[in-house]
Design a protein that fits this description.
- By secondary structure, this protein is an alpha+beta fold.
- It has two domains: about 230 residues, no CATH class; about 200 residues, Immunoglobulin-like (Sandwich).
- The chain contains twelve helices and 23 strands.
- The strands form seven sheets. The chain has a four-stranded mixed sheet with strand order 3-6-5-4, with no helix packed on it.
- β5 and β6 form a beta hairpin.
- α7 packs across α8.
- It is globular.
Length: about 475
C-alpha cells in the first residue's frame, strides 16, 4: 500500500492559510519548590540557535539517573493507558482498536518470536548511537515500552518516511527505504499520531547530551548528539504534523517526578524552530485570553520586539481599533503577545489583521488575518490578495462532527485531487478529482459514515502535495 504521507516538504508543512485553533491553558507544576514554567526556562528565553541549545542543556543536565532495571516499574506510572494497559506506540492505534495490548509485569519480555508476545524497553535513540553509556542508557525521555518484535524490526535504523515497505507491522508502522530528501537508507516509520512524540524525544537527546557525547557514534541521521540537517528537517516536519498531546504532557510531568528534569520541546514546542529552523517565518499557532478585553496570541517563533510592540501592526475591525497595550512576551516567552483592547463584546465576531511582524532574527512573517469569537473558536488566514502560491488550509471546525470545511488555494488552473485517509494511510474518501481554476476553493466534508478518530486530508496538484490532520469526534 502506498503511504499517503511519504513526503511532507518543510516549506509546505509550515505554509498555512486557514488554521483552526484550540485554546488550552496549562497549569503544570514543575518542581518541589512550586516553580512555574517561566522559572524553569528563564535562562533560555529570547535565545535562538546554538546559545539556546546550550541554555537548555544547562537547564536539563544533571538529572537524577535511574537504573535500567527500574524502568519496568517506572513505565507503570509514565506509560499507562486509561484502561491500565501498557501504552505501546508501536502497537496502539488512536481512535481505533489496537491489534493487541500488554499487561504490565506479566507481559514483560523475555523471549519473543511474533508481534504481541511481550513488551520491552525501546531506546528510540538506539544504544549503538551512544555506545550504551550511562546516563542515556536509562534516560526515560527517549525510552518507551514497545512490542519486542517491532523493537527488533526497528533495530538501530533512523526514523524516516517509507513508501515501499519491506515490513509493515500490525498497527501500520513500516520499515523500508527512506523517501524524505537527504537520505536513502533503510528507516523505520511509526504511525503518524506518534511521530511527534518520537521526534521530541530526539530533540531532547540532542540538547540534553550536547557537549557530553565524546564516546558517541555517527550514523545516517546523527553525528554524536547532533542531528544532521536532513534528519532535523524530518523530525521537525513530524513535530509540526503531530503536535503535543495530553499523553505527552502527562508523561513529561511523570518523568519529571522521577528524573527531576523535563523535555523542553513538550513544554515549549517553539524551541525546536529556534534551534533547527531559524530561517523559518513565524506563524500563528493559537489564541486564548478572556476575549472580553484581551487576546493572547501564540506564535511558532520568537518575535522581534519592535515590530511586535507596534500597535499599528494590529488592526481590529468592528470599530475596536488598535490595541491599547501590547505585552511582548508572557513570563519572558517572547513567542507570545498579550493584546489589550478597549472592549471586546461577548458573542461578537472580530477580525484582527496582523502585519509587518518578523522573528527575533529578522525573518519576515506573512501578513495574517485572525478571526475569533468570544467562545474561543478562531481562524487564521493569510492575506489572500495575491494568490500566487498553493495553500492548503486547516479544516474548520476541528475537531468536528459530522461535517467540516476545507479550503485551498491554487496559483493557476490545474488538475486537483483532494483525498481523505485514515491513520493507516488507507484512502477513505475522494473529495476532489478534477481541473480547478486559480484562486480559492472550498469543500465540505461530511463524515457521517466514518467512525470517530484521526484522519488526514491531502491536496495534490502537479508537483505540489500537502497533508494536514483533522479529528472527527462523535
Amino acid at each position: 500500500m502506498k503511504n499517503a504521507f511519504l513526503e511532507l516538504p518543510l516549506s509546505k508543512i509550515i505554509m498555512k492559510k486557514i488554521i483552526t485553533l484550540v485554546c488550552i491553558v496549562s497549569t503544570t507544576v514543575l518542581g518541589q519548590n512550586n516553580q512555574n514554567r517561566s522559572d524553569y526556562y528563564e535562562s533560555a528565553y529570547k535565545l535562538y540557535g546554538t546559545p539556546l541549545q546550550v541554555a537548555l542543556h544547562n537547564i536539563i543536565k544533571g538529572h537524577t539517573v535511574v537504573s535500567y532495571a527500574s524502568l519496568w516499574t517506572h513505565f507503570q506510572t509514565t506509560d499507562k493507558k486509561a484502561n491500565g494497559k501498557v501504552w505501546d506506540m508501536y502497537s496502539d492505534i488512536p481512535g481505533s482498536t489496537p491489534p493487541y495490548e500488554f499487561t504490565f509485569v506479566s507481559n514483560q519480555c523475555g523471549n519473543y518470536s511474533v508481534e504481541g508476545d511481550c513488551y520491552n524497553r525501546e531506546h528510540s535513540w538506539p544504544q549503538s548511537w551512544f555506545n550504551e553509556v550511562s546516563p542515556p542508557v536509562s534516560d526515560m525521555f527517549h525510552l518507551f515500552p514497545t512490542d519486542g518484535k517491532v523493537n527488533g524490526i526497528r533495530s538501530n535504523f533512523n526514523y524516516g518516511n517509507v513508501s515501499s515497505p519491506s515490513t509493515t507491522t500490525k498497527n501500520g508502522s513500516r520499515l523500508g527505504p527512506n523517501t524524505f530528501p537527504g537520505y536513502s537508507g533503510t528507516v523505520f516509520e511509526p504511525i503518524t499520531p506518534y511521530k511527534g512524540d518520537l521526534a521530541r524525544g530526539h530533540f531532547y537527546m540532542s540538547v540534553r547530551y550536547y557537549s557530553e557525547d565524546g564516546g558517541w557514534s555517527q550514523n545516517g541521521g546523527t553525528n554524536k548528539s547532533d542531528l544532521l540537517p536532513w534528519y532535523a528537517n524530518l523530525l521537525f516536519s513530524w513535530h509540526i504534523l503531530d503536535t503535543v498531546s495530553t499523553k505527552e504532557i502527562n508523561r513529561n510531568n511523570a518523568v519529571f517526578g522521577i528524573q527531576k528534569n523535563r523535555n523542553p520541546f513538550i513544554d515549549h514546542p517553539e524551541f525546536a524552530a529556534e534551534i533547527w529552523q531559524t530561517s523559518m517565518s513565524p506563524a500563528v499557532v493559537s489564541i486564548s485570553g478572556n476575549l472580553s478585553t484581551s487576546l493572547i496570541i501564540d506564535f511558532s517563533r520568537y518575535l522581534d520586539s519592535i515590530s511586535a510592540s507596534t500597535a499599528s501592526n494590529f488592526i481590529l475591525d468592528n470599530s475596536a481599533g488598535n490595541p491599547v497595550s501590547i505585552q511582548w512576551g508572557l513570563n519572558n516567552d517572547v513567542s507570545k503577545l498579550l493584546l489589550t483592547f478597549p472592549t471586546l463584546h461577548p458573542g461578537t465576531s472580530y477580525i484582527l489583521q496582523i502585519k509587518n511582524l518578523k522573528s527575533i532574527n529578522n525573518i519576515v512573517m506573512a501578513d495574517t488575518i485572525i478571526s475569533f469569537k468570544s467562545s474561543g473558536t478562531s481562524e487564521v488566514r493569510f492575506d489572500g490578495k495575491n494568490p500566487n502560491t498553493f495553500q492548503l488550509g486547516q479544516n474548520f471546525p476541528n475537531p468536528f462532527n459530522p461535517s467540516t470545511t476545507i479550503t485551498y488555494q491554487l496559483p493557476a488552473t490545474g488538475y486537483v485531487t483532494l483525498k481523505v485517509y485514515d491513520v493507516l494511510g488507507k484512502e477513505v474518501v475522494l473529495l476532489v478529482n478534477e481541473a480547478k481554476t486559480s484562486g480559492e476553493h472550498t469543500v465540505t466534508f461530511d463524515a457521517s459514515h466514518l467512525n470517530s478518530g484521526i484522519y488526514f486530508y491531502r491536496l495534490s496538484s502537479g508537483t505540489f502535495s500537502e497533508t494536514k490532520r483533522m479529528i472527527l469526534m462523535k
